[in-house]
Amino acid sequence: MNIYDIKAKNSQGEEVSMSDYRGKVLLIVNTATGCGFTPQYDGLQKLYENYHDQGFEILDFPSNQFANQAPGTDSEINSFCTINFGTTFPRFSKIDVNGQNEASLFTFLKKSKGGVLGSKIKWNFTKFLIDKDGEVVGRFGPAEKPEKLESRIKELLK
Fold this sequence. Notes:
Blueprint: E1 7-9, E2 15-17, E3 25-31, H1 40-51, E4 56-62, H2 74-85, H3 104-112, E5 127-130, E6 136-140, H4 150-157
Parallel strand pairs: 3-4
Antiparallel strand pairs: 1-2, 3-5, 5-6
């Protein structure tokens, strides 16, 4: 199995294949609208604006598993992010990133890059960097600001 075999529902409830992103550099993030890290949406949007035209995508997966910090419907979350942070990158339906009901994408990501954080997602705004070949090349904790990933993203886009 590789990342391109996985499907997920977007914020409109439509099934999207990760194969739609084949050949692109991806940053996959589990997010929340009421978290202390929520202002990272600004940094994520800046990266998206700077590198989207070069083959970079950010895939946003809201999760309410951590202190109920992503309440609301997919539509409400989408509105919040658009109005407050001007986000334009793809947002997916709210998911679980840990446990019995975790999304298959996050099962795959965690198995690919457990890293120093172990396999479990510890909190909102954990980030996974995927190269153009679909390989998970980095996992970054919530405290790692999106701007700190810029040099890695630029390198992968070459």
